[in-house]
Amino acid sequence: MQILDGKIVSQAVKHELKEKTRRLIEQNKKVPHLAAVLVGNDGASETYVASKIKNCEEIGFKSSFYRFDAATDEATVINKIQELNNDKAVDGILVQLPLPKHISEEKIINIINPAKDVDGFHPVSVGKMVQGLPGFVSATPYGIMLMLEHYKIDTAGKHAVVIGRSNIVGRPISVLLSQNTNPGNCTVTLCHSRTQNLKEICLQADIIVAALGKVAFLTADMVKENAIVIDVGITRVADTTKKSGFAIKGDVDFENVAPKCSYITPVPGGVGLMTIAALLKNTYTACVSP
Ligand code: NAD
Q1: Residue 123: other Cβ atoms inside 10 A
Q2: How confident is the model at residue 283 (pLDDT cuts 50, 70, 90)?
Q3: By the 8 A CB rule, do 249 and 106 touch?
Q4: Contact in structure between 257 and 243 (CB atoms under 8 Å)
Q5: SS3 247
Q6: Complete edge-to-edge strand list for the sheet that includes strand 159-163
Q7: Which candidate, 14, 141, 155, 224, has a CA 20 to 30 Å from the CA of 74?
Q8: From the CB of residue 98, how many other CB atoms can be counted at a distance below 10 Å?
Q9: Residue 268 and residue 14: Cα distance in Å, rounded?
Q10: Residue of minimum CA distance from atom 39 in ligand 1
């Protein structure tokens, strides 16, 4: 069993981006600039945004952070995004989800200039991804693909089972794994809350991507020998032994599943770190694209 180490792969991605950014500075060219928008004070969202900004700083990107309280109206957030759309200094716009209920996520995503859509949620980005055209692929599925690529995992002809069909993880990773690319070229089964015989389907899988948000949902009896398991889940569970008061848990019963796997991602230290690396890669691309 080999761990697919998000720390190692994300460091490699960030090292490359740092070097490229250094070269941009040497050539007096523009440095990538990510603008992050956060509405409300959800603890997990605050942690994610802070980490994204810290990572920008580490590799020499510029960043700016716009923070609104939970009661801010939709028009104010839309105005800020339009301002960022028109700001030539800004290359990438990130609106941290979820948004408070009174603000339409669909409206907000649709208003982002597709050329600055580094989260890859805009319908233009999604359409390009589905057609296999160059464009921004949303960070978590992109990060998973970068990880498979780094470890040179042969995915062609493999049966991949994806659990979860959200627009940000399950659906896009199912598309990417099915594309005629490397990694890709899998036969993909997309499962969700209404799927019947999930255990039997998982037992046929060479690759399982668990992205449903239920702690330790994927158990050893659902996984065949030598399967590759990618755990996307991030759930905060109360833990008094931690300084923060919580521990991060994945969707996979790691302890019992890992011994059966050829490769497996840990949580934390797996896909989460790759998500940030992929976002930074998209921001660099946005900056250097004509
Ligand atoms: P979501 O709630 O939008 O979607 C969950 C999906 O799981 C749904 O499609 C649902 O049909 C499916 N599902 C629920 N119960 C099921 C069951 N019993 N059997 C089969 N399918 C079931 O979630 P999401 O936004 O896709 O996130 C999923 C998990 O991934 C969460 O834990 C989230 O925190 C995490 N996440 C992690 C990253 C990262 O960077 N690692 C990024 C995004 C999301």
Answers
A1: 12
A2: very high
A3: no
A4: no
A5: strand
A6: 2-3, 261-264, 227-231, 207-210, 159-163, 187-191
A7: 141
A8: 12
A9: 18
A10: 272
Q: Ligand 1 centroid to 81 CA: how many Å?
A: 27
Name residue, tokens 């780094």: 150
**If DSSP codes are grouped into helix, strand and coil, which group holds residue 73?**
coil
Taking alpha carbons only, the member of 211, 220, 204 closest to residue 172 is 211
* SS3 category, 249: strand
Q: Can you spell out the DSSP letters for 120-169?
A: --SHHHHHHHHHT-SSPPPHHHHHHHHHHHHTT---TT-EEEEE---TTT
Q: Please identify which of the residues 14, 91, 96, 249 carries the catalytic annotation.
A: 96
Q: How far is CA 271 from CA 34, 84, 98, 174, 213, in A?
A: 21, 29, 19, 16, 13
The pTM (predicted TM-score) of the whole model is 0.97
Query: Is 179 known to be catalytic?
Result: no
User: Which tens digit of pLDDT belongs to each residue from 18-44?
Assistant: 999 999 999 999 999 999 999 999 989
Of residues 49, 163, 133, the one with CA closest to residue 98: 49
| Ligand 1 nearest-atom number relative to CA 274 | 40
Domains by residue range for the chain, with CATH: 27-114 (3.40.50.10860), 139-272 (3.40.50.720)
- Angstrom distance (rounded) from CA 233 to CA 252: 8
